[in-house]
Amino acid sequence: MKTRTGITESALKWAAIILMAIDHIGAGILENFVLNIWGRSPMGYHFAEQWETIFAVDGVLRMIGRPAFPIFCFLLVEGFCHTHDVKKYAVRLGIFALVSEIPFDLALWNQVPDWQYQNVFFTLLIGLLAMLAVRRYGTSTALKVLILAAGAVLAEFLHTDYGAFGVLFIGILYLLRDNRKWQCIVGAACCLWELTAPLAFLLIWRYNGERGRQPRWLFYWFYPAHLLLYYVIGAWILPAVLGIG
Prior knowledge:
The chain is an all-alpha fold. The chain has one domain (9-242).
């Protein structure tokens, strides 16, 4: 039996969660905790010149992690197009949006609740519902645009991660799902403002349509689990290491 070349869905998921984990080291541990306590710590007092180094490391981590979101959006579109039960898919996203919110608030904002920004599962859920509405009611280009615009407004109203852009981006990838070439070109162009994010489409272009071996629930649970871990590191372990009571 001939094996298809390219990247499987499982490999894309692993790439996305690794990139996301790297990105959140910067957004969570460095930005939310280290930079906030460095100046108040004995180590920060004696090594004040390291402040710029921490900023530089944070920038590198964030740049490395930028391709994660486009990959997750592409996988959402693929999942929607191939799932046998959209309702169960939506319920899973909704459950993990709720489960992840407290870890998200703690890791990125160090407070609960924080209504200024909601986790990316909410964005993905709205994107999924928007695709479902386009499939059922998008009988014209105008209706498709209107549906996606409504989803974008909802994301902005709820202050979800990536907001209107995230939902519209998902919609664009969905509308171009039958043409991988243009899906990658347009998708990459939409991400140019984040510099390294278009690199995601180098991996997406190599996607071979196969699922690969994957522990499905691991990818859902990883999101809240790694955020909670980063909070523990930033709020408890680092202050002890840096000598802050």
